[in-house]
Amino acid sequence: MTVVENQTTDVAAEQQPLFLHKPPYGDHLEARGWAFDAIGRSLSFIGNAVFVGTAVVHQAKINAGCLPEDSDVECTGVTQYGIRPSSFLALYNVIVGLASSALLPLLGAIVDHTPSRLMVARISAMAYCILLFPMIFISQSTWFAVAILLLLTALIGWIHSGMSFAYLPEMSDDKKTLERLNTSFTVTQFTTNVIYIVVVVGIAAAAGWMDDSVATARLAQSINFVTTTFFWGIAWLKLMEPRPAMSELPPGKHLLTIGFRTIYRTSIDIAKHHSALGWFYAALAFSESATQALLIIITTYSIELLNFSSTEAGIMYLIVLLSSVVGCFVSELSLRLLSPIRSNQLCLGSFALFTALAAAFVKDSRALFYTFASFWGVCGGWKYTIERYLAITIIPKNKDAELMGAYLFFGQILAWLPPLVFTALNEANVSIRISMLSLLIFWFISVICLQTMGPYENALRQANEAVEDASPAVGNTPEPVEEPKLEPSSKAPS
After folding, report:
1. Crossing angle of the two packed helices 213-234 and 117-132, in degrees rounded to 10
2. Any idea what the Cα angle at residue 297 is, between residues 296 and 301, rounded to 5°?
3. Looking at the whole model, is its pTM more than 0.85?
4. CA angle, corner 490, sides to 39 and 455, nearest 5?
5. Where are the beta strands (DSSP E) in 86-231?
């Protein structure tokens, strides 16, 4: 390096804030930016869905005329907006699920065919942070407005996440480096979740707010707003770089529809040439929709029947989160005894069993509910680990980018359906205990789809045959699909 280059580097270092000197990702600025973005996404999910969401339901119960001391009785009243308090979180999930399913193909088209990825990420990040601020002022007079803001931030958050995740596979051309970065990002998100919940619950306990959902939500959202704005500002204004369009928009095609056309063509190709993978994606659609809805439904259950405060909801999620790490190791252990398909089926059966037992036996015991939360956490860590393992082993290597995109799409396509079923039952005055059992239908259908896949070895053979058929030259032996080593630390859900 020349003297001039040295001087330039020194000047650049002096111009950086102190906390950016000797960063954990070295000179990889975008990796650091993606980690900063992950911190904001982690905070916002817990702050909005757990702390603020719980406070909204409590305020809705007061609006419906339900007394806070009636902790063991379902609120049968209706808010002034014509909705039962126990339907708010589920209805929120219905709208977000429908919107996200529609947005994914469009976001893919923006990434593929425009150079606007960074601009969309910046605008969505700014809009998101602006909308976080008013939620700090949640009260009995503002709770419905805050509920609307929760919905808007969820939709904008989906747009932002779509742009953010498009950067992830481009972080490195080296597979091992990319895996190492991905593991690091997962650890960052997990650590952020744990620290955030512990800090909020600790301050709330010290201040005497354990039973005050509004005060806890205000505290959590204040931390969320300041921290997310800080880290996202650095990530998207300083660290992340623009990207050119990956390909030109074909003549006669429109940006709004080309993503849906691509999904359609991919689905037809899967149905014709990758039947085992197709059944796996069908299983994923049903299992993921039920599992996503589970957190919303058990949060509603805990508020309605156990009168959980925002602080207690945070403790419940912390238990789920920590238990998910155990689930990753359970997944690894299961592979020593079972095929990945059978392991996945056993996991979903365990989800259904624990949910049925919770609905039957949890009445007024918070300790018992926390115990079931740990069981759900183990199943969650197990599920996400084994499904990602299945995906990367049965997706043909020559189509991994296209079919991993389909993996994300099918994992989201039915996210609206279980909460819609729950909302319909709940509005018909069906007990939450019974409505909760509707999730078992989706896990059961997923188990049937996994059974229809056939033996795991056949799925592997289909993947290898697809690579062989696409081999460009006779005599070239393609690299077979290998079973990768399972790395539990990189698979914990966030």
Report:
1. 150
2. 120
3. no
4. 135
5. none
